[in-house]
Here is the input.
Amino acid sequence: DTAVSQTPKYLVTQMGNDKSIKCEQNLGHDTMYWYKQDSKKFLKIMFSYNNKELIINETVPNRFSPKSPDKAHLNLHINSLELGDSAVYFCASSQDGAGFTEAFFGQGTRLTVV
Amino acid sequence: KQEVTQIPAALSVPEGENLVLNCSFTDSAIYNLQWFRQDPGKGLTSLLLIQSSQREQTSGRLNASLDKSSGRSTLYIAASQPGDSATYLCAAETGGFKTIFGAGTRLFVKA
Here is the structure.
């Protein structure tokens, strides 16, 4: 029973397309995150949501738009995809964002823009 | 601005050896420090979480320490096994729902 699940696992698309990645957590956590892992394996936070409210937007182009329909879901929509968007995107969740509980990660979505 | 650095970037050891992975952070005002393991093509698995008020945490053959004053954390792996081969990441939560990751240490344990 996967705690944090992302779909799809792999996504190959052409430049200029619009795509979405979905994330769901069944842990009852209040906080969800999106991270981007680049080709050098460096993980960087993109967004944090707490109780469906956007908390952090870390200098991410506005082509990236997260949407949280409820506490258990945080989807990532990307418009006008560019080659540089190719990366692995990880969704994560934690009970709170105040540092008292560990974060759980999804398996990642490998996005390839061609 | 918080920066997290991990040394070494890569490490290869024979099976059975005890080893230490290092993590340093520039801003000591952290809520917690978490160690993760990432297997190739997989997500991150949480190994240990050390709260800012704690000095260390242990789980099986793993022991993580935290020294906020010096901005350092170490992950100690005892009696390493080939199955320990993975990338190990440390991450510092700075509050405000923000976690900063190091670049990771790639560990290879030779049988």
Notes: Chain B touches chain A at residues 30-32, 34, 36, 38, 41-46, 49, 51-52, 87, 89, 91, 93, 95-101, 103-104 (CB under 8 Å).
